[in-house]
Amino acid sequence: MTATTDQAARQETAAPSVPAIELRGISKAFGSVQANKDISITVQRGTIHGIVGENGAGKSTLMSILYGFYKADSGEVFINGARTEIPDSLAAIRAGIGMVFQHFKLVENFSVLENVILGAEDSALLGPSRKRARGVLKQLAADFELEVDPDTLIENLSVGHQQRVEILKALYREADILILDEPTGVLTPSEADHLFRILRGLKEQGKTIVLITHKLREIMDVTDAVSVMRRGEIVATRPTADTSATELAELMVGRKVLLRVEKTKAQPGDEVLRLDGLRLVDAQGVERLRKIGFSIRAGEILGIAGVAGNGQSELLEVLAGLREAEGQAWLRGEPLPLSGPECNGQARRAARIAHVPEDRHRRGLVLPFHAWENTALGYHHDPRYNPNPWRMDGAAIVADTAAKMERFDVRPPDPQLPAEGFSGGNQQKIVLAREIEYGPDLLLVGQPTRGVDIGAIEFIHQRLIELRDAGAAVLLISVELDEILSLADRILVMFDGRIMGERMADATDARELGLLMAGMEQA
Amino acid sequence: MSTKRIPHWADVTLVPLLSVFLAFVISAVLIWAIGESPWEAVKLMVDGAFGSSYGWGYTLYYATNFMFTGLAVAVAFQARLFNIGGEGQAALGGLGVALVCLYIPWPHWTLALLGASLGAAAFGALWAFIPGYLQAKRGSHIVITTIMFNFIAASFLNYMLVSFLRPQGSQDPSSPRFPDATTLPKLHEILGLFGIPFSKVPPVNISLLIATALCFAVWWMLWRTRLGYQIRAFGESEPAAKYAGISPARITIIVMLISGGLAGLMALNNVMGEQERLVLNAVEGAGFIGIAVALMGRNHPFGVFLAAILFGFLYQGGAELALWTGIPRELIVVIQALVILFTGALDNMVRIPIAKLFAIRRTG
């Protein structure tokens, strides 16, 4: 009896089938770039809806429109069946929409409680709000596995917990619809699993969740329906049960792609680099690298896995000569200085160490410079590229750049175009062309495919394997576990400035590495 | 995002011209409001600055000063260093010129010019080196140190003039007159060689040609040499420069040396070319005007050249205006300030609508 009425009641709410979000014909252009083109999408209440697409496909723009950051040029938004204008984020919050950004918007030196009530204080005095928030947080923690100590400062929380605070902020404001933008980019696999448990719990309580990601595995794991965006348009919406990762990848790119990298077994040769007791203490006195030692041979790709912020970036900078550290290093058996005047980018290049930096916008490229000026960056002293000791030999460098662009399929192949005029993938190809064609003995690569579209990822991976097969040593640092697993021959896992373990790539899996990444000694 | 959608030609011509035009419109309203005729004022200014070779002479004389100081600011800004110390560096350049001219017996003005150039550049560069070094090695902010060095320079010059350079018994805190062999040829003498008549009164001299040549040389240095490449790379992105093995400290110091040297060279024009002795406050604010000139010239040497002539016009035209009308001298300063305000600070006010116009034209 009760069961049937329950069911009837549920059917009644479901019967009019009012979707939580309905977008009709949303378009948005930035200048001549059409970021969103006539987008219509329906998100059912109480479901997890995934939105996938390459970088620049328009996912973030669409969500920014929904959250009131941008105004759509045309189109309508319906929330719970009612046409809703969302001119700013306050209106979005009032409509029951909460957003968890990729880069958290938290006040670092405020406590969890203070962050939660920020902007939602009930009165000029904070006491009553605090009291109320404390109760609400306790309830939410119990309901959704969202435990966070309300009195801890944000800066003392792990990234995973900070994200929970973002979710709590939205729930505290009684959000019914939660949008998460690339939520797992900074999480360990186990933290990501926990997040997904939370999301499923929220769904069961009738909340609607929109998950923006480029990780197909997550889509397959957790969503009920998925929409694929390509070049500002929705190209498909499918129930997750009726699709596959391969199909989604093809829809995203618009053609067939290889998700696995094809490579032969590595043939490691002589030792190229050996490190011993590498230690780095930063300006705040925090030990970033704790006695790191390893070696890398010619003809192998050594992958360094780890959650962002566990010392990988610092390791890369030390090896590239951009930061001084204690410890010893040998390159081809000769001592390699880790501090002093001989420790700089120029000296490292002369020692045949090339470097594809993690942040190509800040470091790898000078964005307003022409492509040809960028292919000379770091090699402007090298007579092979710039024969004249005083002048910049424009003609010679432009010709060299044109040839590199051709070989690395950079589009458009125009050496005079400023670096900022290229897409992320093509920018990365410019950096890679510069560093790989130098013919290094050791290539340091940080996040080679971050912000790069799938088509270019394939290409970049192939080039790295070709370099390995040509006898170079490649040190690959990436937070994408899949990338490490498919590209590296040998894997080191870093956690809290230490090397937690070493595994051969063909004898391990994401689960084992994930435990090491989370700092578990015995995986 | 949209700021990058303006074609380059519009960025370097349309935007500054429109800004100047707006500044003039507001100036006209001001002149009208105090009961004078804006039309007459414009006529007087243009006529006074460009209507005769006399006016041209003064306009170009001022412009020469501004080219030196404008280039100094522009070069430093290419490395994103804000050298506010042009005033002090130019003052020290004056000291260099005075010492070279007074204490070395020169047989001919050409050699004297060479020696004075070295002296001016060296003293100006030295004055910029200290803030540059402090920035590079100690992290002291260049804006603060260069401003403070302006005051030190003024006091130091005062001391030097009163205690050392002033002829015995003279009441005037200025150096003795330089020997005749150090007198630079005036523009009318140079043009006279080609049979072109030019007013003998204005102090414009061969320094104008030096400043013009320097505009070209600085451009060449910045965009054609390895050093310029490193300077610009450092200016656009310090992490990228470090990545490329370019030493930030080295570039900072080199750029400040060049910048200070350029500011110091201004002394060729005002000290050696015009006054022919060193007086107190010889720079008369040209170091600060250089900031506005560089700002308006988009920190590009060619832009600096044009902006320097515009400010030369404002100076000379303004002086005429004060002489012949009831418009007070202060209002001339207001007009100059409006030009600076519109070309520098309110740049986006003009730029964004223009960018939108171009966007509309492209899509529609």
From TrEMBL, chain A:
It is found in: Cell membrane. GO terms for cellular component: plasma membrane. Its EC number is 3.6.3.17. GO terms for molecular function: ATP binding; ATP hydrolysis activity. Keywords: ATP-binding, Cell membrane, Hydrolase, Membrane, Nucleotide-binding, Repeat, Sugar transport, Translocase, Transport. Its main location: membrane. The keyword Nucleotide-binding applies. It holds the Pfam family ABC_tran. It is an enzyme of class 3 (hydrolase). It comes from the Bacteria. The keyword Cell membrane applies. It is a peripheral membrane protein. Residues 21-256, 273-521 form the ABC transporter domain. InterPro entries: AAA+_ATPase (IPR003593), ABC_carbohydrate_import_ATPase (IPR050107), ABC_transporter-like_ATP-bd (IPR003439), ABC_transporter-like_CS (IPR017871), P-loop_NTPase (IPR027417). This is Ribose import ATP-binding protein RbsA.
From TrEMBL, chain B:
It comes from the Bacteria. Its main location: membrane. One of its GO terms (cellular component) is plasma membrane. The chain crosses the membrane at residues 12-35, 55-77, 89-106, 112-130, 142-165, 204-223, 251-272, 278-297, 304-325, 331-350. It is a multi-pass membrane protein. It is found in: Cell membrane. Keywords: Cell membrane, Membrane, Transmembrane, Transmembrane helix. GO terms for molecular function: transmembrane transporter activity. This is Ribose import permease protein RbsC. It comes from Roseinatronobacter ekhonensis. The lineage of its organism: Bacteria, Pseudomonadati, Pseudomonadota, Alphaproteobacteria, Rhodobacterales. The gene is rbsC_2.
